[in-house]
Amino acid sequence: MVIDEFRANGGKVGGPFEGGDLLLLTTKGAKSGKPYTVPLGYVRDGGLLLVVGSNLGAPHHPDWYHNLLAHPQVQVEVGTETYEAIAVPAEGERRDRLFAQVVRGAPGYADYQAKTARTLPVVVLEPAEPEYEEADGAVLSEVTSLADKLVQVHTWLRAQLRHVRAEAEAHLLARAAHQGPGEPPAPGLGLRIRQHCLAFCQSLEFHHTGEDAHVFPAIGHYHPELRPALDRLQEEHRTITRIQNDLLALLADIGTADPERFRTELERMSEELLAHLAYEEEQVIPALAGVPWPPVRETAPGQ
């Protein structure tokens, strides 16, 4: 009922939520992959939104939190705006600082924390849409063809890979700067790296599945001269899946990995992934330039 009221009234609801800051968060089920939408209170942190996995102080994290750990890409509805985001749980000192900020704006979360021994997670919702930009900051032109859409998706994938590499390097530099007794600090960016890496890998897998099932067969039908290249791309997709799994395994060990070996492996995997995207663009973009996007709905005679 709250969800229906929210969507019918531009984000405004009555009852116990009236006047509060409320958003709708849609996640994919951790196991089922099905979409689930839940209304949540939020607090702003500059241009970002924060949500807390309070579960009313219950001893277990809410289902939506487990969902976003498995599938970091989420949909956010706030007011009349809807956008895609990457959900990144804050860690360590940043989590504590953001939770204190949340409590200042919504003191009830302190009561929920007092009810449970678990640490209530604070999740930062990072909009994905601004990352449809080139590495030099140039914004992509308007998308009017399937070729433009392919470039847009590839640009987003490259942005996610840049996130992973930059944050991994920041962690390695922090480890190198550690001085004094005791162990170096745990990866403060561990979950951030993991979430962006998962977003990249899952998006790439979804992208490739769509190409293999729909895009490539259609291109091959109308452009038989491209079939050798399309066959190579489909074969590469299997190789890319292996690299994705290797990338996730590499990042899982970032806290203890040898820095030079880690950098070498990450660079190798990144180059392979980027080379695949570049080859795909070189081979198929000319064939997609004349296909309108969004797809044009065909109208039956007399309609």
Secondary structure layout plus pairing:
Blueprint: H1 2-8, E1 22-28, E2 35-41, E3 43-45, E4 48-52, H2 63-70, E5 73-78, E6 81-89, H3 92-105, H4 108-115, E7 122-127, H5 146-177, H6 190-222, H7 227-252, H8 259-288
Antiparallel strand pairs: 1-2, 1-5, 3-4, 4-7, 5-6, 6-7
Helix pairs in contact: 5-6, 5-8, 6-7, 7-8
Q: What does the radius of gyration come to? A: 22 Å
Q: Please give the share of residues in helix.
A: 40-55%
Strand content bin: 5-15%
Which whole number gives the mean pLDDT?
A: 81
Q: Count the helices. How many?
A: 8
The number of strands is 7
Structural category is alpha+beta
List low-confidence stretches: none
Distance between the termini: 37 Å
- Largest sheet: spatial strand order: 2-1-5-6-7-4-3
Q: SSE string, helix = H, strand = E? A: HEEEEHEEHHEHHHH
Categorize the overall geometry.
Answer: globular
Quaternary organisation of the protein chains: single chain
**Mind describing the biggest β-sheet?**
7 strands, antiparallel
Describe the overall structure.
Helices cover 52% and strands 14% of the residues. The protein is α+β, with helices and mostly antiparallel strands and 303 residues long. The protein has a seven-stranded antiparallel sheet with strand order 2-1-5-6-7-4-3, sandwiched between helices. A hairpin with a 2-residue loop joins strand 3 and strand 4. The radius of gyration is 22 Å and the shape is globular. The two termini are 37 Å apart.
